[in-house]
Structure formats: C-alpha cells, structure tokens
Design goal:
GO terms for molecular function: hydroxypyruvate reductase [NAD(P)H] activity. Its EC number is 1.1.1.81. With 421 residues, this protein is of the alpha/beta class. The protein has 16 helices and twelve strands. Helix 3 links the parallel strand 1 and strand 2. The model has no long low-confidence stretch (mean pLDDT 96).
Length: 421
C-alpha cells in the first residue's frame, strides 16, 4: 500500500496514531477508586466530550457533571452535561461554561471525588477573566498570543495569570474534595500543568515568568491586563499548596504513545520507520524547511536513513502571523516542506493536527509531494507568496490536497509523516 498509494498509507498512519489515544481505551485504564461520597465529572478541551462519554460508559456507579468542548466536537452523554464553546478565540458560551464548572465543584466534602477530564484546547474554552478584567480582555490576550509565535508553554503561563480558573484554581475551588485529573497531552514534554493552562494542575511558574515571556516574545497586551499581571492578584496557587495534597494527575494519552503506535503500524506494512522527536517546537515554516532538508538527504544520498523509510515527528509548532491568510500550523509547515522538496520524486508527506482541525478551517492539515509546487503553479498559485502571506490553506485547497478527517475526539499534538520511497 505504501508504494502504490502514498496518501492512503499516510492516512492509515494518522489513523493509527489517533486510535492509540482513543478515549475508551485510555479512560478505562485509569479509573480512580470510588469515593464514599459523590462523583463529579468536569472537563475542558477538544477531546473532553469523548472522554466524558467514555467515562460514563466505564464508571459503575452514580455520577454527574459538566464539560466544555469546541463547537462541533460534542458527544452523546446521559449524565454529564456537554457545553460547546469557541476555539481558538474564547466566547460568551465558554465564559458561562467556566462559571458553571466553578459552581459544580463548590461546596463539596472530603468524601467526594472530582474527576477532571482535560485535553488541549481548554485554554480558549474556559475564559474566566480575573479581577476587573473582562471577556473582551481575555479575547484580546488570546488573539495576541496566537499571533505572537510564542511556544504553547509560554502562552499558557501568561494565560493562567489573567484567569480565575486556570493554574490549578479549579482544583482549589473543589477543595476539600479529592481531584483526579486525567489528561490528554498536547504539550511538548507532556507537562500536565500546561495542558489547557492547567485548570486542575498547578505549576511553579510565577507572574514574573509571565512578564518575562511577554517581554521576550514582544506581546502587546492591553494596559489593564498588564496592570493585573503586575499585581499580587495575578499570583496562582503553587503545587505545595495543601489543598492539592490528596489530588492525583495522570497523563493518559500523549504524542509519544501515538507516534509509537504510528511507527508500529508502518512496520506492520513493511516500511521501516524512524521517530525524530515527539516534542518539536519552533516556527512552522522553519521546521518545515528542516524536515524538507532531511527528506532530500535521504532521497538523494540515502542518509541519515536508508530508503524506503517513514520519518515521523510530533510536537507543536507556532505561526507568527504576518498577514491575514487562511491556514494553520500544519498546513504552513507542509507548504514550506513542499517548497523545500520541489521537483524531487519519491517523497510524500502528511502533516495534520490529531484533533482533526488545523487552525480555523475544517481541515486537519494537508498532503504534499515533489510535484505540489508545480501543481500549484499550474492553478495560478505562487507557493512562496502563499507562504509569505500565511495562506497555506488556500494553496493546498487549489490543488485538492487538504486532509479533512473531521473531529477525532482526541488531541495529542501534531503528526508529521514523511514517506521517502
């Protein structure tokens, strides 16, 4: 299959990676002990509704709760309320969801159990402006962060210092109940405190760290937001806070596990596979150029890997917006990659977000090969101009190479798969 239909092969690799993060499989392996009191389920993220449905199916006992997910990502639940809200820019639905989550965990006892189902995307889905800040302020911050090119770790450190729910604050609100967080990681390095800006998992990053990141990445934020971050009111609870002493955190799915599954699937089909890293960060177009250079070296000189070979990588790149084109980090990565392998035969690639959505459009990513740039030119599309204008979606749409699997129900970062035949 790999040699006769590269797109079908690469699609099967993506499906294997997503299957390894399937909610029913991962939730069942990490069920907590039943409490003496109530079981409350809360959650946020692009995979939270599927996690909630899986938890309902696996939990043998009474439960109730609420989770928030992206529009179009809902799953059918009987006992857990599912709310849909906006991503990647917050909206009023998310604001109401955040309030409801805080209300749901208030007034609990030490005999109660709170199960937090957390996945990537929760940062935007749980706007909860702190102090005198407003939803408009949080939207402005989010838009500035998305355009900054800052890594996700920096963005989430800043987000938690303007929030009333992130940075462990949701877990603190549940005290004295025990909180068990089941986390699907979309963060390079799999630090659970950074997934969805850690609503139930505190970390040691301080507002001084947030201010340093704002300066490092030259992020322009509203004056009232800066005033808040410069005040003691922005301080988030620390991991040593006794309110977190009984809590547990489990990363139940990650890019590393999914990449291993993708590699196993490829080897089963007779294709040797190498994994570069599960935690690659950096500007999408620059990472695309580096991957293209590696693929060229294999294709032309049969080094550092012998062909045929599948080259995999994961992580989360960033895009510094220079224009207002259509795209996402995976399609931008792949357009730079396509430019880097232009004219070379025997190279096929897929770059896609494992949640099924790349950026603001309906595609997860795209396919590319050595003929991509020439085919774009044939449609009147200048690939380099499209890259310069952050318009990768338009470029791939012109040649019919967008990858549109639909929402997958999970989110373990980006998958980049490059087949050198």
């Amino acid at each position: 299959m790999a040699m006769t239909d590269p797109k079908q092969f690469l699609t099967s690799i993506f499906e294997a990676a997503v299957a390894a993060a399937d909610a029913e499989l991962t939730i069942r392996r990490h069920l907590p002990e039943k409490p003496k009191g109530r079981t409350i389920v809360i959650g946020a993220g692009k995979g939270s509704a599927q996690m909630a449905a899986a938890f309902e199916k696996a939990w043998d006992g009474p439960l109730e709760g609420v989770v928030v997910t992206r529009y179009g990502f809902a799953a059918l639940c009987k006992r857990i309320k599912i709310i849909e809200a906006s991503h990647p820019v917050p909206d009023a639905n998310g604001l109401e969801a955040a309030k409801l989550l805080l209300e749901t965990v208030s007034g609990l006892s030490e005999d109660d159990l709170v199960v937090a189902l957390v996945s990537g995307g929760g940062s935007a889905l749980l706007p909860s402006p702190a102090g005198s800040l407003t939803l408009a302020d949080e939207i402005a911050v989010n838009e500035a962060l998305l355009a900054s090119g800052a890594p996700i770790s920096a963005m989430n450190t800043i987000r938690k210092h303007i929030s009333g729910i992130k940075g462990g604050r949701l877990a603190a609100a549940a005290y004295p109940a025990r909180v068990v967080s089941l986390v699907v990681s979309d963060i390079p390095g799999d630090n659970p405190a950074l997934v969805a800006s850690g609503p139930t998992v505190p970390d040691e990053a301080s507002r001084a760290d947030a201010l340093r990141m704002i300066e490092t990445y030259r992020i322009a934020l509203p004056a009232n937001v800066m005033a808040h971050i410069n005040s003691a009111a922005a301080d988030a609870p620390q991991p040593s806070d006794p309110r977190f002493a009984r809590n547990e955190v489990h990363v139940i799915a990650s890019a590393a596990v999914s990449l291993d599954a993708a590699a196993a699937a490829a080897r089963k089909l007779g294709v040797e596979t190498v994994i570069l890293s599960d935690a690659i960060e950096g500007e999408a177009r620059e990472v695309g150029g580096v991957h293209a250079a590696i693929a060229r070296e294999v294709a032309v000189r049969n080094r550092p890997f012998r062909k045929p070979v599948l080259i995999l990588s994961g992580g989360e790149t960033t895009v510094t917006l220079r224009a207002k084109g259509k795209g996402g980090r995976n399609s931008e990565f792949l357009l730079a990659f396509a430019i880097g392998i232009d004219g070379l035969q025997g190279i096929d690639a897929l770059a896609a977000d494992t949640d099924g959505i790349d950026g603001s459009e309906d595609n997860a990513g795209a396919f590319a090969d050595g003929s991509t740039v020439a085919r774009m030119h044939g449609e009147g599309v200048d690939a380099k101009a499209m890259l310069a204008g952050n318009n990768a979606w338009t470029a791939f749409n012109a040649v019919g190479d967008l990858f549109v699997p639909g929402p997958t129900g999970t989110n373990v970062n980006d998958l980049r798969a490059i087949l050198v035949r």
